[in-house]
From TrEMBL:
Gene3D superfamilies: HUPs (3.40.50.620). SUPFAM superfamilies: Nucleotidylyl transferase. This is Probable nicotinate-nucleotide adenylyltransferase. It comes from the Bacteria. GO terms for biological process: NAD+ biosynthetic process. It is an enzyme of class 2 (transferase). Pathway: Cofactor biosynthesis; NAD(+) biosynthesis; deamido-NAD(+) from nicotinate D-ribonucleotide: step 1/1. Residues 12-191 form the Cytidyltransferase-like domain.
Length: 197
């Protein structure tokens, strides 16, 4: 786990990053700025239980590629889930909060994940563990109105103008962040590679 100090505001941006791309880097930059984060943990997961593991590049390769596209020193590329043999986000966030008392964390995810968020293992526990920032993605802008999570936690939604306060709020609390969007997707990049072969 990256080193943090009490009082810091830290974003956790998890994903398989298979492969990482400029769209992911854009999400990281936007959230550091809009949430006024001291650090952002770019958490490369060993795998995603909701996705096909057959296409997953080796963890070391995804880590190296992630480090290559994240020059900002506030971004800490890590894969600590693998060392702890963690599969589910709720377990990751419980570990992070128990080991880092006095640090204010925010879970960061793209709006494209919001539609299926209610299928995540213990998704309601995630909502109760730490605030969440949902970042706009092409084709997913309206997900913050229609998703199961958005409807179930509509009263916990924080206005985007209040995003800098999000890390300091007691969960459940979430916001939807609009801004520059990238049409890049890891799925499309993998398909393009297969088409070249």
């Amino acid at each position: 786990m990256p080193y943090v100090e009490r009082g810091m505001a830290v974003g956790i941006f998890g994903g398989s990053f298979n492969p990482p791309h400029a769209g992911h880097a854009l999400v990281a930059e936007i959230t550091i700025r809009r949430l006024q984060l001291d650090q952002l943990w770019w958490l490369v997961t060993p795998g995603n239980p909701l996705k096909d593991a057959g296409e997953l590049a080796p963890l070391a390769q995804r880590l190296a590629l992630s480090e290559k596209i994240t020059p900002d020193p506030r971004i800490k590329v890590t894969a600590f889930e693998a060392a702890h043999r963690i599969r589910y986000t709720a377990d990751t966030l419980e570990l992070v909060t128990s080991r880092n008392r006095g640090v204010d964390f925010v879970w960061i995810m793209g709006a494209d994940s919001l539609a299926s968020f209610h299928r995540w293992q213990r998704w309601r526990d995630i909502m109760e563990l730490m605030p969440i920032a949902v970042v706009d993605r092409p084709g997913s802008t309206l997900s913050f109105l229609s998703s199961v999570m958005a409807k179930a936690y509509s009263r916990a939604r924080v206005d985007e103008d209040e995003a800098p306060l999000l890390a300091r709020l007691r969960p459940p609390a979430w916001t939807f962040i609009h801004g520059p969007r990238s049409s890049l997707s890891s799925t499309a990049l993998r398909q393009a590679r297969r088409d070249e072969d």
